[in-house]
Every structure is written in C-alpha cells, then in structure tokens.
C-alpha cells in the first residue's frame, strides 16, 4: 500500500474508492504481490528442479487458485474439499498433493479415486493403504523430523509432541511396512512449522530426509514443506530466501548425485505467497474513551480475522482516511461479543467515526478462517488484477446465513 498525493493506493487502485465501490468490511488481494513472491521463490531455487505446491488452506478462493495455475504452481491440499476447489479451478489431479491428518480411510480413498498424490502421515494409515492398494497406487510419506521450529506454538508442527507426520525414529518400522505390502513410495515430506527465520532449520530437516531417502529407491520428489517468515512490522526480520536457495540447492544436488538420479525439490508455501498481498479494509463505527483506553470499534472482528486473537499475531494497521492527522494511541477492537482485539496501544493518525482502517498482511489465514459468530456475515473479496478490481466473492446475506438451516414446527 502506497501513499500518493494524500491518498492510499493498492496496485494503483484508490483504497477509499474500493470501499465506496464494494463496501466494508472488505478483503482486497493484490495479484502483483502474489506474482512477485512466486517469482522470488522460483528464482532462489533456479539451480534445481523445484516445484511450488501452493498451500490452499492459506487462501482458497477459486480465482486466486486460477492465478496460481497460470503461474505454473501445483497445489498442497489437506482436505477433499480443497482438492475439489483445485480441480474446479482447472488443476490436473496429478498437480495436487493431498496431505490429510486424522481423516478416515474413506477420505484417503476419495483422494485416490480423484487421482491425487497421497501423502500419508501415520503408521496405521500407511498399513491400511498398503493392504488396499499394494504397489498399484504410489504414495508419499510425511515424516516428523522432531525439530522445534516456528513462531507461535499453534504453528509448530515438526516437534515430538506434534500430531503431524510419522516419527523419523520409526523409519525402520516404515520400511518393514513398505516391504511387506510392496508399497511404491515416490516422495518424502516434512513441514516443521511457520515463521521460520533460520535457514539451518531447513538444512537440518533436509539432512534427515536425505538419510531416510536411501531406504526408498523409487522416489520422484522430496518435499520440504514451507514456513518462510514474512514481514509483519517495518524492518521485520524475514527468512533469507536467496541464502536458503543457495544452501539447500547445493545440498540437494549433492544428494541427487549420491542417490543416482535427479529428483524434484518441492515446497508448499502459503503465507509466503499470499500474506502480504492481502488487506482487510474496515470502517470505524465508534471511538470510545474510557478511564484507561481509547477504543476504536470497527465493523469487523475475530469472525473475519482471527489471527490476532488465536496466534497473538501482529498486523500493521493504518488510518487510510486521515494520513496527515496527529498520531495518537488507540486500541482497535471488533464488534463481536468477545474480546476481539486487533491491536493494543497502537499509534495511528487521529481516528474519527467513519474513517477507513487498513489491516495489513491479511491475505493468509484471513478469510479462510472466518466464521459467522454472532450471526455476522462474512465480507466480500476483491482481487486487483491487471489494473482492474474484480469482485471474486459476494458479501454474505441473511439468506446465506440460514440456507442450510431446517425449521421445524414447534
């Protein structure tokens, strides 16, 4: 978002005009930012055969998925429903990696029937898969490397107490199951968490997967998940993608030589690709001064963006309507009957009722984690693409709220 001639713009589009055209609250996504992040990642790994599998859970709008298809990405999905969205967006089943957790075998079979690449993350499911399919359907295995990495505990997924993946220490058991059932393993996978700063975390995990790979002779890819840190604050420290690209590419190419043939290197970024593209635009309903705090109440809440409440996540906020106002200290809160605080003690240009605030880094895990708590409607979504604002999801209405309810006569 840029300030020019006293107005804020996203990809040359006037932010206040977007609010006038589509109303608030409003999710806005900048396609140019998505494209630049995708190119940055691809360029960092230009020395290897690297494939990006976009993590659909971050932002699953079909129009956004189509954008990734046009860029050349595949998809990482964690549910059959996400896979169906991907297929509807035009992806081939072979371009979709299905990594479910704690699902029934029936959902695994649905993935096989759709032609997805199945990524299995527990021993019992691997046994069941082998009994059912033998070597007729190849699959991948998600390993848990027992590496503590990532930001908030809710997004640390590769440690010993995580529900995700098969322990690296169970490798001998895995190989016995694979041999007994003649299972064709074509990939190894790990994902240690989100908001990882240190490239050495990926390298440590890579070394473990490289060692495990020696037990599987038909591999086609090794998938390192994701977890790249993006900037939430000015001068925030982020993952050095270029450094990681150099280090991991070198080590991966060395591994491929020892393995005897070239494999693909996969990543599954979500937040890295779409977090910074997104903004949640909200209108100020009230400015309320108490004995201790000045609250800014907006027409949104944790029902639209739960990350500040669920992950203690920081989101930069600016007053779009009054960029030259005197800066004061405010606490920005939502309209939900809950303590839904977007920001405590935040310095903003003077806020007035009716002003528009922009919440940054709202592209990832924003709309996809939204809900109808307090029977509130979910907002519209707009994609800025090639100089035009495209409405890609209508704002919900009362009919949407009750369409699946069944009234009975009492």
General description of the model:
With 410 residues, this protein is an alpha/beta fold. It folds into 2 domains: 2-29 and 275-402, Lyase, Ornithine Decarboxylase, Chain A, domain 1 (Beta Barrel), CATH 2.40.37.10; 99-269, Alpha-Beta Barrel (TIM Barrel), CATH 3.20.20. It contains 12 helices and 21 strands. It has helices spanning 15-22, 31-44, 62-71, 80-88, 105-114, 123-133, 171-181, 199-213, 241-259, 271-274, 307-310, 398-402, and strands at residues 2-4, 7-10, 13-14, 26-30, 50-55, 74-77, 96-98, 117-120, 139-144, 166-167, 185-189, 221-223, 264-267, 278-289, 294-298, 317-319, 327-333, 341-349, 356-359, 380-385, 388-393. Strands 4, 14, 15, 16, 17, 18, 19, 20 and 21 form a 9-stranded mixed beta sheet that branches. The protein has an 8-stranded parallel β-barrel with strand order 5-6-7-8-9-11-12-13, surrounded by 4 helices. Strands 1-2-3 form a 3-stranded antiparallel beta sheet. The chain is globular. The termini are far apart.
- Give me the CATH fold name of the largest domain: TIM Barrel
**Oligomer, anyone?**
single chain
- Give the integer mean of the pLDDT values: 93
- From the spread of the alpha carbons, the general shape counts as globular
